[in-house]
């Protein structure tokens, strides 16, 4: 058992050196492997039978046909290879998911040239498979589903891309790492009413919180700022990228607090917080998040929920304890 | 979730087309019910495709297989042998169609189809059949390609084109393998064509046998002489020697009929100029070879019988090529052994009394055996004997009737009567059967011998001279020997009367004859170079072209030949994937990025050109300004308001300058 695991690890390391992870991969000879498929091996056995027929009957035309099929097999190596070579795979996006669900990865296939590509089979081991042909269009978006693991970043591993076109006798494949990862949120877990879910904050305090109501100033663009808030006019004039800041006023904000579940295991706390975040969102309430080291100011809406769930998903506590 | 591999509609269509194309050349060889099974299975599968019927269940399939096997056993009397095997393969092919649902089934079917192509060659390697087989292979390969083109909805020719391209690329490689692959002998004995009829001259002769053979316009063999072709009247192709007459039938002696001392031919004093020639025989399923007297062959597998004919211990199943050397003037057996003499004089106790009486009378009137021969021939010449393909039927005393009443006969009648008269008069004589004459093809100077050139004549032993050839037919119809059967029968209209489609029949039409002779010359070349390419030819060929054979030259030619074909194919395939052509400005900017990347400064994903230029300015201050300026002009071109030609040129110049500076700095550093 051990040597197998060791070999697998060494193969993985070799593969990482040979085909490093990248968001966009164009397949070339460094990345493509080719061997006879199972059908191809069967075909070779058939060729052997034909050769024996030719030898035993001393029949030159049988020799000729046997050799024609043999060389067809050899030429097929190039054609099978050409079906995969030059193909570009690009990671587009990955959808977050809850544990036990399927996440959806979106890839883009570009044939890079005008030659049609047939029967490109994509899939992760354990995930689903898609067969794609690029005949009438140069590129295609492919959605692949894959079951995710536990909370945190889910790496689907290397994507298998294979094709046996045009003869089915040879299998041409590669394992690409498109540097794809999907966020896995904590598993929502219901609990008794969250302590302090009734408003225990003074109402109407004029604390400027990131919101969408009133413009109050500029700040340097930070990754994650909404593109709608970017000060494009200024940028076109040659200034650096600036985001417009808007203020909202915290109102009856609820806090999802790490400390609200004394005694519970950290993973469980995160699950409860996740549940309540979803619940408050459903009830259209504003809510904030306080975790050791992370604070998300109160707010609501899809993007806010995403921010909160991301903070929960990536919180290290679960893995520490 | 695994994607299910269905059989695309186009693949099914190509499969059905190739299925019937494969059957066509075999159609005359298999029982009619196999054709019916074929058609029924095709219809059934089509109905399944249209959703009308369903696939047969397992019990039905097993039932069909059993019935098919039983049918073949009933039709052929066995399941072994080549024809039953082919019928079995074809039936299996048709039945497999009934469970063709997934791609895996299609593979089995298609590989079976390739194998059926090969079985056709075991029956004939005729040029036209081979061309037809190429079409078949193309169709099957097309089906194989279509099987993997699942994206296509409508029918198109692209799978055919792709298959044709691949086969065309494979073809030259196949030629290399064909000439280099060592030809070795059979590894074990294989089923033979049990059902095929024996053709050509048979090993016994009754009146009517040869005239039946003469109805056929098929080619018996082709001969290529190394020197001049002898005149037609000298072309007596000896095949069989009949020494035994029993119940009105002449037959040859078996090996075990001979006493041990007589089983090997005696020494022959060769004399005169020898003739060298090679013969390509069509399959006869018999053992004897045809040669001019007196022939020897140095070729392995060719033996010589004590009556100076050549034979092969193995039946001639396929086209067979042999070389021989003949000395027409060599005397044969000037001394006759007692056993041989007795054998060549032996007659049945009774029968044909009038003929025997005539023979004794004529011999008594003659001064010598030679004189006696002349008298008998004169009788044939002077009395109203007729040479005809349609002789009347003869009764119990066949020769008496023939000589004294009907006087109409074909060569076997004359040979029979003549030899009988010789033996009755105490002169050793025997019948020789084979072919006489042949057609000279002016295109390549081969002699084409057809079945209708089949002939029988006599050999008479004369003291001091040995065996002498005497052809009584020549006395009756000199035209037969000088000009061939067609001329000899010109008045009768019976030449090839039963073969209205034979091209030989239309020799008188110039262009038909021209085509026929061209095609025959091509066939000869095909047979001698491709079909007859055996280990001897291979050695000759390789030594002629490669000189002394060594493993190194062998491998060099093999891999060199492969590389010569595969490298251009690979290049053309990979060149196709070339990038979409880019605007010259983009190309320059991307070149700049590449060069910077080589310096370890790769543009990040999503990084704007301006930001990247700032980063470059920090890392490489020496080129920073140039890069920044070039980038600015470039982005203005790309994303700014419309500009003039001059601006675009300026941007290109700036980019080129940046590229040059980078190249120079690179040099200094190294």
UniProtKB/TrEMBL annotation, chain B:
Residues 403-474 form the Transglutaminase-like domain. The chain crosses the membrane at residues 30-48, 60-76, 106-123, 129-147, 159-181, 554-574. Pfam families: DUF4129 (PF13559), TgpA_N (PF11992), Transglut_core (PF01841). Keywords: Membrane, Transmembrane, Transmembrane helix. The keyword Transmembrane helix applies. It comes from the Bacteria. SMART domains: TGc. SUPFAM superfamilies: Cysteine proteinases (SSF54001). The keyword Ribonucleoprotein does not apply. Gene3D superfamilies: 3.10.620.30. PANTHER family: PROTEIN-GLUTAMINE GAMMA-GLUTAMYLTRANSFERASE. This is DUF3488 domain-containing transglutaminase family protein.
